From TrEMBL:
Binding site for a divalent metal cation 1: 95, 106, 234
Oligomer status and interactors: Monomer.
GO cellular component terms attached to this protein's record: cytosol
Catalytic activity: Release of N-terminal amino acids, preferentially methionine, from peptides and arylamides
Gene that this polypeptide is encoded by: map
Keyword Glycoprotein applies: no
Name of the featured protein: Methionine aminopeptidase
Chain segments annotated as coiled-coil in the UniProt record: none
Length: 269
């Protein structure tokens, strides 16, 4: 299947969806407290979607029953919100998608509750930074796996972490999951050329142990086989018509994070 290329007006619609995603994830991080449940956080996200007259990318997707994925500790991705109370030291990963005018935005964050183990904080920091390194490497004229190599190289430079093999990033636009699939590992220089109009959701997923995972009996929740804690970060970014990057799900378009990596962002969006 061909990679969907967007014009500027379509990217502007994706930016609207991306801002809803950014606002909601910020709200959820601010709202999350020890003693809350992920089901309560899901309801906050439902309310914010309604406030912005947006639809959920996740609810009903292949039968998924919620608007957020909420994964705690060894649950790396695709956790279903439930009534388990969050406790101090938990690592919580929240994935969220929104639709505005039939265009999608998708992003994820991980953060700790209460007193966080420094090794868990480093896990999250490494995962997040690897995402930004991937975005910085995903330049016009490069190849898709330049992103993969940048993500893997940074993670491996920071210690021994498991990089999930079965899951990765994806194209996004008029549907949440589109071509191409984006691995978080592998050599640079392969795959399709990166061109203006592409919109890609980069999402490194790592654990403090090895990369092996299993899916629980709910057919959704992905956990580490060795019960090590995981982290998950994601942003939707585009190569704008002027050839510069723009992070559609970041409140500032990725300006602050990409500037320190020497990457200017587009001013078209």
């Amino acid at each position: 299947m061909a990679i969907e290329l967007k014009n500027l007006d379509q990217l502007k619609s994706m930016r609207k969806a991306g801002l809803v995603v950014a606002d909601t994830l910020q709200l959820l991080k601010q709202s999350a407290q020890v003693g809350m449940t992920t089901l309560e956080l899901n309801e906050i996200a439902v309310g914010n979607l309604s406030k912005h007259s947006a639809k959920s990318s996740f609810l009903g997707y292949h039968g998924f029953p919620a608007v957020i994925c909420a994964s705690v500790n060894e649950e790396v991705v695709h956790g279903i919100p439930n009534k388990r109370k969050l406790i101090s030291g938990d690592v919580l990963s929240i994935d969220f998608g929104a639709i505005i005018d039939d265009w999608h935005g998708d992003a994820a964050i991980s953060f700790g509750l209460g007193e966080v183990d420094p090794a868990d904080q480093k896990l999250m920091d490494v995962c997040e930074e690897s995402m930004w390194r991937g975005i910085a490497a995903g330049k016009k004229g490069g190849k898709l796996t330049d992103i993969s190599a940048a993500i893997e190289s940074y993670i491996n430079s920071q210690g021994k972490y498991g990089i999930l093999r079965e899951y990765g990033g994806h194209g996004i636009g008029s549907a949440m999951h589109q071509e191409p699939h984006i691995l978080n590992f592998g050599p640079a220089g392969n795959g399709p050329e990166l061109v203006p109009g592409m919109a890609l959701a980069l999402e490194p997923m790592i654990t403090r142990g090895n990369e092996r995972t299993k899916v629980l009996s709910d057919d959704w929740t992905v956990v580490s086989q060795d019960s090590s804690k995981g982290a998950h970060f994601e942003h939707t970014y585009t190569i704008a018509p002027d050839g510069k990057a723009f992070v559609l799900t970041s409140l500032d378009g990725g300006k602050e994070q990409l500037a320190r990596l020497g990457i200017p962002i587009s001013d078209l969006l």
